[in-house]
Amino acid sequence: xxxGPLPLEGLRVIAIEQFGAGPLGxxxxxxxGAEVIKIENPAVQGDSARPVPPYPLPxxxxxxxxxxxxxxxxxxxxxTTPEGRAILHKLVARADALFSNCKGTDPEKLKITYxxxxxxxxxxVCCFLSGFGMSGPRSSEPAYDYLMQAYAGIMSxxxxxxxxxxxxxxxxxxxxxxxxxxxxxxxxxxxxxxxGKGRDIDVALLDGAAYQxxxxxxxxxxxxxxxxxxxxxxHPSLVPSQNFATKDGxxxxxxxKHKFYPILVEKMGRPELxxxxxxxxxxxxYDNREALLxxxxxxxxxxxxAEWAILLTGHVPFAPVNTxxxxxxxxxxxxxxMIVEVxxxxxxxxxxxxxxxxxxxxxxxWVRAPYLGEHTREVLCGLAGLRAEELxxxxxxxxxxxxxxxxxx
Length: 409
Description:
Layout: E1 12-16, H1 21-31, E2 35-40, E3 56-57, E4 61-62, H2 63-68, E5 73-77, H3 82-93, E6 97-100, H4 106-110, H5 114-117, E7 125-130, H6 145-151, H7 172-195, E8 199-204, H8 205-211, H9 214-223, E9 241-245, E10 250-254, H10 260-267, H11 282-287, H12 289-300, H13 305-312, E11 318-320, H14 324-328, H15 331-335, E12 339-344, E13 348-353, H16 376-382, H17 388-396, E14 400-401
Parallel strand pairs: 1-2, 1-6, 2-5, 6-7, 7-8
Antiparallel strand pairs: 3-4, 5-14, 9-10, 10-11, 12-13
Helix pairs in contact: 1-7, 7-8
């Protein structure tokens, strides 16, 4: 494949991870060239995301699992046993970082903090992503995206006025947590390369969710502001900036800067609205929100999505409210190479989202998520220096396992 090396080639990360947030983050590293060695517990059939419905695949696999574990290696290793822990020590001795997304108190129980592992590698960066973090009264509790959307107050802001609290349509707290975890891990690596000493990095889903309250938090903390829901996903300050129903669907129009408003009303054939004293300035439009939105809502109903796209695209921030299928079929998504293909032994070609970080000139690679223990022998013989007979003995005692595709050696 044409292209130069990926920027993270040579970086090795030991990942003790499961489900979505952590695996998404380490997959970004793997996409960018890092060697991510995923440690999975053979006693529980590995990552709990492997059998997630509704689209299973053979061999303890699923389309869900494939989504978050591309370009990784899998080692089936029971690290809670003395033998498994000794093997883990050999692996971290030759790694740059260890990442885990278990509960906040688990790293200490599993003995995978920097304090426990630094005797084997003083430059090792140990990054932990958990629901509530490694400190505080709830650090021992498990947490998931939906819970964090509720706990951080985000659900109270989502949905239509008068309706029940609602989650976002995607697991954005998990995804942002994965990104923050990798930012923390790379931050620790930068310091380790400078000082020769690693450290623990503590990232919490709750912290990331609360951080996304942004200016609403600043207003609440300093001005007593009580955020409320606005109809049609409207912006709380800038009008008009929201969804509008059209003759055949919905569009999103955002006049986030004052200059866009007179262009909008001119393009829709209502130029007089730019000079209407009720709507002349952003403050006027904020104070007379309902009156302006009543007028604009009636105008948007007169044309189709396609007709509004012709009128507004390139002039006012505008987008159709697409379905998932429409979004994935969009020429801009294609132009950004956001749909890639991987080959799977039983599913054939699987299409999935590509890496959102573009490295012009780099040689990108797309390898399916591994079977449980697919790389156990490769990694433990090559990296940890175990002999074949040792592996067989450890396998008989349930410490390691492997499951390799037909023809693999």
